[in-house]
Amino acid sequence: MTAILIGLFALLIFMIVACLIAIETRDLLSAVVCVGAAGFGLALADLLLSAPDLALTQMVVEFICVVVLIRVVVTRQDHTHETPKDTFALAAVVLCLGLFLAACGFTFAALRPFGAPLFAGPEPTMAGQYVAHGLPDTGAVNYVTSILLDFRGYDTLGEATVIFVSIIGAYAVLRSVGRIGHASHK
Amino acid sequence: MQATSESGGGLSPIVKTVARWMAGFILVFGLSVVLYGHLTPGGGFAGGVVLSAAFILVVLSHGRREVLQILSERAPTIYDGLAALAFLLLAVLGYAAGGFFLNFLPKGQPFQLWSGGIIPLCNLAIGVKVGACLFGVFAALAVFRHLHQRSA
Amino acid sequence: METLPLFIAIPLAVAFLFPVFEKLSLRRALLDGLAVLATAALLAGSLGLLAQPDRVYWIGGWAPPVTGINLVSDGLSRLMLVVVQAISFFSIVFSLRYMDRYSSRGFYYGLFFLLLAGMNGVVLTGDLFNLFVFIEIAAIASYALVAFGCESEELEASFKYLVLGSVSSAFILLGVGMLYNLTGTLNMAEVAAKAPALSGLPIMAMVGACFLFGFGLKAAMVPFHAWLPDAHPSAPAPISAMLSGVLIKAGGVYVLFRLFFSVFGMDLLYARVFMALGAVSMLIGVLLAVGQWDFKRLLAYHSISQMGYVLLSVGVGGEVLARGGPTPVAALAVFAGLFHLVNHAAFKSLLFLCSGSMEYVTGTRQLAEMGGLSRPMPLTGLACRVAALSISGIPPFNGFWSKLLIIIAIVQAGHYALAALTVLVSFLTLLSFIKVQRYALEGPLPELLRSVREAGLAMSLPLLALAALCLLGGLLLPLYAGALFTPAQEAMLSGLNYARAILGG
């Protein structure tokens, strides 16, 4: 258990560093690569936590995202670094983040410890019921799928709709002509 | 390479041929991830992304100009919508059979491809949906954006 | 025949079909007809639901002990459902003509129905994670709709909204995750059953803070309001009506009520936070609104202020309840808050639709560039006057009655300073709408607008219908309060009995 924890923390630090570099770097391409590295770290973390479904999905999504983003940014320049840095805003952000983390550190002690999953506990939980009824009641050998598409299939419909609305929204916003007729309020 | 790709002409014939071959294998892999989602890790979401990767590979290697001849701007959203509709239809068929999202088909033998009732069908619908969707995102950003820039 | 899932399935099916229709390049009348028909059917269905008793629907047949996702029809969700369907119906009818000014009708309808499906899902669900999923659907659809005109300032407003909305969603998800970890369930009723055992733990304060921040931002309560004055005016007018009229309620205030009354149980601290957020939003919103010259922006600030009334009133109700005060006072406060919520949906949608109607014919949103519009546009002028009188709380319109009830309830609860504040804010609201009347409807007609005419019946009819609702909503209150408000008020006051009502026993 401790080996997994150490690995997890190493991955977490790696991901945080990658995200910070992605924010701070002036080169968009390096930023994209760093985002990809953070996502790859997340996939590894999923594997460490024995979640192959998640790891697989995270991995392929990450690959595709990096490919798409590289294709898009390869000819672009980032101009945001030309705006001067606002020290006050930075201090405020750091302060808020610190307060939030302190609150988390103070309160998270009440949460279930690492390595004691919900379905293994003595008290009846949703997850425990899903594991107990997964194969006999749905016929799917993969518990993840039985939860995703049977017990909580309605959630999955919602998630599929989230993807649908994102792409419809993106296509709508990327239209070249938004308004017809006279331009208003200009 | 960058200059060719930017003008939309695609890469060299060797790359195109290899990419087409690869795309076939990627498609098969994606389909197996989708169809065996209820037996092994994977499923509609992961498999759909793999499916989209095959198409993205072809588009990247062949370049924008060739792709635009056979692909309409609406195609990704249409497949997306139809697959989502198929998923919803499965839910509504369950509704007709007694309950929204009821798993109304026989559960079958565990470890068989045809088991789990509606689950493999749902996976298939989600796979097509996610594949079309991610390819649509890529196409919107990499292929069609240039259309609008030219016309604007 | 169980109708609850249809409130999600119908809008989703319609939304999924629109890209296909766009491809088939069907006649416009067909798209319009389908949209109107679908919203009308949903409106009729939601009204039909009012006559039916509370019930729970377990999706896929997964009822406890194997807890799946459930849809809940209780008083509060039925009330919200009716409001959402009604405003979306009027907005769609208004869009038929108004959206001529925009391209890609198919995308518009698609996004509109996804927004509707998201809100219906939020209102009906009894599951925390499902709530999050449907809030995301509604939110992402609204991000895209805010930028539907594709102009740079609209894109900027949408981006700001998207960033803040995503932050709030992240906090909501964090809260849901913590609750799941603590209780081992995502079902609201099961969480509610376990909530009393957890109260007092510091982590519950953290969960509460996450939800307050997340949903407070979605409801645009001060100090989380920064996105709303940019986002709501940027959208096309029917969407502004949907966002201000129902989204900030269904996706924000409703969920706050549901979570804090039915799932956590109202305690004194939460009630005071509600009251403080409400009072501050009420005052700051109206102060920011008074100085505005952009008609839609002014209306957007008033949305913050008016939702402050709702939160304040319900907070007072919760406070009376939590400190063991007289139940009739709590009941009155909650009733008044819900009544004002419905009234705000009616008059604020009407105002946004009026602003859209004026923008459609004049091409401007600036009050200074308008004037004398009540003569060439008598119907819009009339509707706009009715709405302005309603929001300012002038008898006999609906806003007067709900504000009166709110003030009575606050006084009965013993918060005299807050009652005085409420009156003051009401006065400031009147002031700012006198400005609207003076500059938009009265005075000389500018030379440029000589040829302006009413935009047509399709745009005027929803205005008149909503205006009639504003007038009759107050006068006929005793006739329909029993069907619409009393069950909702009872659902909120029964608090943690929500768990027993759903799980039985």
Describe this structure in words.
- The complex is a heterotrimer of chains A (186), B (152) and C (505).
- Chain A has 186 residues and is an all-alpha fold.
- Chain A has two domains: 1-76, no CATH class; 118-175, no CATH class.
- Chain A has helices at residues 2-24, 28-48, 52-73, 87-107, 126-138, 143-151, 153-173.
- In chain A, helix 1 runs antiparallel to helix 2 (28-48), helix 5 packs across helix 6 and helix 6 (143-151) packs across helix 7.
- Chain A is globular.
- Chain A starts with a helix and ends in a 13-residue tail after the last helix.
- The mean pLDDT of chain A is 86.
- With 152 residues, chain B is mainly α.
- Chain B has one domain.
- In chain B, helix 2 runs antiparallel to helix 3.
- The two termini of chain B are 27 Å apart.
- Residues 1-5 of chain B have low confidence and may be disordered.
- Chain C has 505 residues and is mostly helical.
- The mean pLDDT of chain C is 92.
- Chain C has a two-stranded antiparallel ribbon.
- Chain C has one domain (6-503).
- Chain C is built from 19 helices and two strands.
- In chain C, helix 5 (128-146) packs antiparallel against helix 10 and helix 13 (327-362) crosses helix 18.
- Chain C has helices at residues 6-24, 28-50, 75-98, 105-124, 128-146, 152-183, 188-198, 202-218, 228-234, 237-263, 268-290, 295-322, 327-362, 378-392, 398-412, 416-441, 457-475, 477-493, 497-503, and strands spanning 55-58, 70-73.
- The chains are: A mainly alpha (186), B mainly alpha (152), C mainly alpha (505).
- At the A-C interface, helix 4, helix 5 and helix 7 of A face helix 1, helix 4, helix 5, helix 6 and helix 8 of C.
